Amino acid sequence: TYYANMAVHHLYHQAFIELALLKISESEVEDSALLFWQEIMNLRNLFKFEFFFSKKENFTEEIERNLSFLDPNWETTIQNPEKGVKALIEKQRMLVAPVVLSTYVEAYRVVAHSLKSWNTDNHFNESQFAEDCQFIGETMQWQGMIQRMESVSKPFLKNGIRLVKNLNLIPIGKNLKTTEIDNFMGQLDDVWSRITQLQKITLTKPPDSLPAVPVERNFVPGSKTEAITHEIMQSESGSHIGAFFDLDKTLISSFSAKQFFQSRMLSGQMTTKEIIAQFAGVLVYATGNGNFAGLAAVGAKGVNGIDEQVFIQVGEEVFEKELADKIYPEAREMVAAHMAQGHTVAIISAATPYQVNPIARDLGIDHIMCTRMEVKKGKFTGEIIEPACWGAGKAHAAKELVKDHKLDLAKSYFYTDSAEDLPLLEIVGHPRPMNPDTKLTAIAFQNDWPIYRFDGEDRATIPNLMRTGLAFGTLLPATLKAISDGVTSNSWGEGVNSLMSTVGDLVCGVAGIKLVVKGEEHLWKKRPAVFVLNHQSNVDMFIAAKLVRQNATGIAKKELQMYPIIGQLMQAGGVIFIDRKNRQKAIEAMKPAVDALKTGTSIIIFPEGTRSYDYNLGKFKKGAFHLAREAGVPIIPIVIKNAHDAMPRGTNIFKPAAIEVKVLPAISTKRWTDKTFNKNIDKIRDKFLEELGQEKK
Predict the structure, then answer these.
(1) Nearest to residue 237, comparing CAs of 339, 333, 331, 332?
(2) Which candidate, 41, 109, 155, 540, has a CA 20 to 30 Å from the CA of 371?
(3) pTM of the model
(4) Angle at alpha carbon of residue 257, lines to 282 and 288, rounded to 5°
């Protein structure tokens, strides 16, 4: 079935490799390695609408990892294909390309044949063309040109049509695009020929050489979707387990109500009463502590007397034009994995069925619990069917599913982005925040719930740009307050303390950064100390200031001294700048830090020396540990788990985020010796790795 195939999307790397290997084994070219990588990229482009691809450089690394898994000497093999490529293919216990790619290629062949027969006198109508594709596809299936009936189903044909539009293959007027379409068909025939050869290799294997594990359970190690679906595929199977999904920002990356409202507005059919009701509903929501039931009730009044069929049609149009492409590829994987396990999958959403139904149909989800408006004789009555599916209403909806389908809530899953869904999260056995808002992120950290994030959105949105400007704008009032406090107390130290704590509080507050701190008591028990923190983001210095707050200074690279405003503030705060390129000067610059520690001032330092490129913990430089040992003070490790959510490396724009911080107990350095020094540093770094969930290397 379609969704059984969805569950094996994580195998596309291996499928591409099989086809590329077969290509070079049959070609007589001087540079077979070049041909291999060209074919890999051609396949990536051909299936661009079917799989979730990482960036090209990462994608290449993923292919290389899978090649190493198949053949440790793969570089030699692809450079000399005549000496072993065919044998390498034939010795594989399972060839996945025929399973993973056949249906897509067949659907594309149907679309290509339909383009050849399209009457260019008619304006290209996608809906009509899709119907033609289905008719031609059924004929091709009857003629034996394609093997799978699902190849002519709408989901597969839809992506085929997207592909040919993207490749600019739609005939227009007298431009029949004959050559271009023929080239496309030739590419498909070539891929199909190799898939057929791989099928024959599989069919000629003796039965005992074939894998006994179902294909849905074979994950390529290290792939992104393997990590997403591994837990599900290893879980208990059976329809007694529920898998409940919220809609907005969980299954889709957009807000369906916004798209629905915009479509109604632009249609010109929205009545004045409906517009007023919608805005009044939003006002009730905003002033009623986020009471969705109030919003829904007011909004329903505005559609009193409108034919329900109008909303059904708008819902379908919004899905086709706006939401079909907004379904997270990872969410598709998770839905498919739950289905492969036989779980009872449902959408439980505050949205209306007119927003939910098309998405549920696309994902193959039969069970829908959502907010419904009362309909009599085909028209809305202006009333909501209580309870609205929001907050506690979602927990009520889940209990209805439990009753109707004999589900075990203790073994069931719920995926959502919103803290408003806490009533349902708290009663399932597997709460799973997905792209969670700041409040839910904090709750998840406190309860040790795993978090899934699919929003890799690092672009500088207008709100985030404004937030960043305001956050950095707080540095001036923080400085003025520090000067005032210093003058009032007649103490430079009090002014510095005020500067540190105020900068930390104001910048984090305005930027929308919420710290969820465990072990906060360890910040104060053993001072003075050397505070060591891992380094993920430019926001780390503000996090450190907010945590440590007073009677401390930092050690930073000399380059930061040249930063406008921030460099001057750090200098005013007594930060010690070191030249990392000159070891002797760096050692000399550290001497004041030892004196500071001995007189009661703590030191803040990032022992990695620079931010991590991939958020994996870097090697620790030894300066911080020499300081602590020489001054006879403890080391207090502070583990920052996800500062990159607030400001990813490569950007200087704040994003609202809840950041988990773990402060570990102070570690005494008094018994450290030259012999145990490096070993003690390694032990501290291992503690960071353990908290970050990273492997020791």
Answers:
(1) 339
(2) 155
(3) 0.51
(4) 25
